[in-house]
Structures are given as structure tokens and as C-alpha cells.
Design a protein that fits this description.
Oligomer: single chain
GO biological process, one term: guanine metabolic process
Bound molecules: guanine, fe (iii) ion
Helix content: 25-40%
GO cellular component, one term: cytosol
Radius of gyration: 21 Å
CATH architecture of the largest domain: Alpha-Beta Barrel
CATH topology of the largest domain: TIM Barrel
Distance between the termini: 34 Å
Strand content: 15-25%
Keywords: Hydrolase, Metal-binding, Zinc
Strand order of the largest sheet: 3-2-1-4-15-16-17
Shape: globular
GO molecular function: guanine deaminase activity; zinc ion binding
Cofactor: Zn(2+)
CATH superfamily of the largest domain: Metal-dependent hydrolases
Structural class: alpha/beta
Length: 428
């Protein structure tokens, strides 16, 4: 057993940080949290217990990012005078087409994984590209890194340039092959079915993917209600379906408690009911939604509607991977939304809520992850001692780290109790 000693903070509930100043997280040999305490009870004195002394440091749950595009990492910061559909055509599709080259993919996927590690993002759900070989390589590199993400080959068989499109049959066959291969070679990196978004996928493709979801009991990720032009396009393509969300539902692409829908900026109440009933994780990508002029999600309204809302990056619809930046953006965006609503209806997000949405809510996609309650996997960041001349409490130090800190402040990263060194040393 191990006892990690330091200033421990987490958010079992969204309303406040639970703080154990100079406390301990007790973890068993399998990497599961047994206890989180202010002082070690006598019972532990006799146990075979190794103290890992990080006194003066913060010990917090690792970040979980349920929406990120791995191949778009080299694109970060480009093209934000455009809105979504033009940006996809002018920047994203050309960039993703380069991943047909396995050597190029290998290099940039190493850099991407290193960026996730640096940022303290220990688990994530990534879109790859439609290329089978480089998608498998991404999964293998993730497996080597010690991080525990899920990854999906992107399915797209219509409304895409001829240099980045597959036939329906090839897309389905490639997906099934990757499901099988990854089950053999990447035990810690799961496969997630990834139709790009409704406009990119024919009905036949969605139907076939829905069958794979059912046959292999897989999770699904896609985009929903991101920009108004996109929504109008979906309405034209599927005039017979009452809402965008229900297109995914109709084709079996919204398995209960296994689905991630990115953005959800412009949900209708009808769609809120569908997402609640299907227990979908909504990813709130506030920075991306501003970078691409998509809009601002009414986070408070979605929370009040009982939806599971996470903070996510959407790299490279956004310009940086670091989850502490996205926590801040979510708070700032919700404050802007409050002004818009006349300061009455929507209470802005509190920092503890946004932190909860970047740790425990997205962590629950992976199981018991994102908190230090007993039974949770010990996924943790150790944040270095504070040098401020002010006499700050642990919570104030965490606030400063979230608002102003970066990878240089993260001393250690643990996944399921295992210390994860920097992957791919030469790639930063
Ligand atoms: N919708 C369809 N594809 C994409 C993508 O790559 N990024 C974003 N932000 N939205 C999308
Ligand atoms: Fe996205």
C-alpha cells in the first residue's frame, strides 16, 4: 500500500472543493484509492505502507478530456477567421489527409501524446483520421505512453473532398478490422466508434456503424449542434427526422451511457430530453466555440436540465490543449452568457463546478476515475510547491494553478497508481 502525502483536493460534488491540508491518499497495490484522510489512522501504522511524501505540493485528480482531435494538433491556432464549415474545408481536411503518410503520423502523434501528458490530461477520447494504419499507430503509441484514452477511426463517406473520403464498405470494414486489432494489441486503449458528424456519413454508413456498436458493445463519439450553418445543413439532409440528435439515435449511434456528443451549443429542449434519456456526455468546448464563432453553450441551463456536461478542448477547433485553460474559458464563457441573459436566469459556473466537469464527470466515462473517493483509480497530478509571497491556502494555490499554471508546475502524473514518465523523450 501507498500513502501519498500532500495537500489533497478533489470535487466529489460540484458545489465545492474538498480539501485535506497535509493529508493522505491511501492507495492499494492495484492503484485503487482506499481512503483519503487528514491524518493516518492507527490501523495503517501496522500495515505494509509506503509513504510517498509530497508535502507542500497539491495532489489533485488528473484531467480527462472527452473531445480532442489528435491529428489536428499541428493545426492549432490556424484559420479562426473562418467559421466551422469553411474551416473544415480550408484547414482541417487538408491537414488530416497528411496522415495517410505513416511516418508523418507517427511523428506528430508522438508530439500530440506528449502534449496531453504535459498538460496533465491522463485520459481522453480522441478522433484520429479515416486512415487505418495511422489510427492503429496512434493507439499503439498511446498504449506505450501509459495514458489510458479511447481512440476512434473517423468515418466519412460523403460531403468530403475526394482526397479524404472512403466508400461505405471500406469505412465499415476498416472500422471492424481496427476494433479487432486494437483488442489484441492495445489493452489499455479502447476503440470508440467515430462518425465525423451527420453531414459526413450516409445512412448506410450510420446503419452499419450502429450494428458494430451493438455487436461489439462499443461507445460512440460525434459532433452535435455546433454551428448554426451545420444544423441547417443536417435539417436539409434529414428533413424527416425531428432533430439533429435524433438522427444519431435513429441509427443506433447513441448507446445509453456510452455516448459522447461534442459541442451541443444550440440544443433544443427536445434534444435535451433525448440526451438526458440516453445519458450522453456533452462536451463543452468553450474556447473552440469562440475561436470558430460557433456560439456559447448555455451551460447552466444544461446542468439544470440534468445533463452530464464536461469541459473539453476540441484541439484544434481550439488553440491549446491544456485543460486548466479550458476550465477557465468555461467559467469566463458562462459569465458572458450571464450578462447576455440579463444577469438573472443563468448563474455563472463556479470554479469547483468547472473543475468537477474536467475531472469527475468525464472520468466517469472510463469507470471510477476523476476523484479520490474510495474505489476510484488513483489518477493524479502532483503540482509543485507555491512560491508566492502570499500565505495561500491549498484551495487558493489550486485556483492560481488553474488560472496561471502550466506543465512546468506539474511534477508528477499517476495513472491507476502508476507513475507515468514523459513518453517519447525526444519529441517535445
Ligand atoms: N465537425 C465535424 N468535424 C469537425 C472537426 O474536426 N472539428 C470540429 N470542431 N467540428 C467538427
Ligand atoms: Fe471536434
Amino acid at each position: 500500500m501507498f500513502a501519498y502525502k500532500g495537500d489533497v483536493l478533489h470535487t466529489p460534488t460540484p458545489d465545492r472543493f474538498e480539501v485535506f491540508e497535509d493529508g493522505y491518499v491511501v492507495v492499494d497495490d492495484e492503484g485503487t484509492v482506499i481512503d483519503v484522510v487528514s491524518s493516518l489512522p492507527k490501523a495503517y501504522a501496522d500495515a505494509d505502507l509506503t509513504i510517498v511524501d509530497r508535502s507542500g505540493c497539491l495532489i489533485i485528480p488528473g484531467f480527462n478530456d472527452l473531445h480532442v482531435h489528435a491529428p489536428q494538433y499541428p493545426l492549432a491556432g490556424l484559420g479562426f477567421d473562418y467559421e466551422l464549415l469553411d474551416w473544415l474545408e480550408k484547414y482541417t481536411f487538408p491537414a488530416e489527409s497528411k496522415y495517410a503518410d505513416l511516418a508523418m503520423a507517427d511523428h506528430w502523434y508522438r508530439r500530440f501524446i506528449t502534449a496531453m501528458w504535459s498538460a496533465g490530461t491522463l485520459r481522453f477520447s480522441a478522433f484520429a483520421t479515416l486512415h487505418n494504419e495511422s489510427t492503429l499507430r496512434l493507439m499503439e503509441l498511446c498504449q506505450q505512453s501509459g495514458l489510458k484514452p479511447v481512440v476512434g477511426k473517423v468515418n466519412m463517406d460523403r460531403n468530403a473532398p475526394d482526397y479524404l473520403v472512403e466508400s461505405t464498405q471500406a469505412s465499415l470494414a476498416g472500422t471492424e478490422e481496427l476494433i479487432r486489432k486494437s483488442r489484441e494489441t492495445t489493452p489499455d486503449v479502447g476503440f470508440i466508434v467515430t462518425p465525423r458528424f451527420v453531414p459526413s456519413t450516409t445512412e448506410a454508413l450510420m446503419e452499419g456503424l450502429g450494428e458494430l456498436v451493438e455487436r461489439y458493445r462499443l461507445p460512440v463519439q460525434s459532433h452535435l449542434d455546433e454551428s448554426r450553418d451545420e444544423i441547417a445543413w443536417v435539417r436539409e439532409l434529414h428533413p424527416d427526422v425531428p432533430s439533429y440528435a435524433e438522427v444519431y439515435e435513429r441509427y443506433g449511434l447513441m448507446p445509453r451511457n456510452r455516448t459522447i456528443m461534442a459541442h451541443c451549443v444550440w440544443l433544443t429542449d427536445r434534444e435535451r430530453d433525448v440526451l438526458r434519456e440516453r445519458e450522453v456526455w456533452l462536451t463543452h468546448c468553450a474556447q473552440s466555440n469562440l475561436d470558430l464563432s460557433s456560439g456559447i453553450m448555455p451551460v447552466r441551463r444544461n446542468l439544470d436540465a440534468g445533463l452530464k456536461v464536461c469541459v473539453a478542448s476540441d484541439v484544434a477547433g481550439s488553440h491549446e490543449p491544456d485543460m486548466n485553460r479550458h476550465i477557465v474559458m468555461s467559467v469566463e464563457a458562462s459569465k458572458a452568457k450571464t450578462f447576455e441573459a440579463g444577469c438573472e436566469r443563468d448563474r455563472p459556473l463556479r470554479l469547483s463546478e468547472a473543475f468537477h466537469m474536467a475531472t469527475k464527470v468525464p472520468g466517469s466515462f472510463f469507470g471510477k476515475v476523476g476523484s479520490f473517493e474510495p474505489g476510484y483509480e488513483f489518477d493524479a497530478l502532483v503540482v509543485r510547491e507555491d512560491e508566492s509571497p502570499l500565505d495561500l491556502s491549498p484551495q487558493e494555490r489550486l485556483e492560481r494553478f488553474i488560472y496561471t499554471g502550466d506543465d512546468r508546475d506539474i511534477k508528477e502524473r499517476y495513472v491507476s497508481g502508476r507513475l507515468i514518465p514523459q513518453p517519447f523523450e525526444d519529441e517535445r
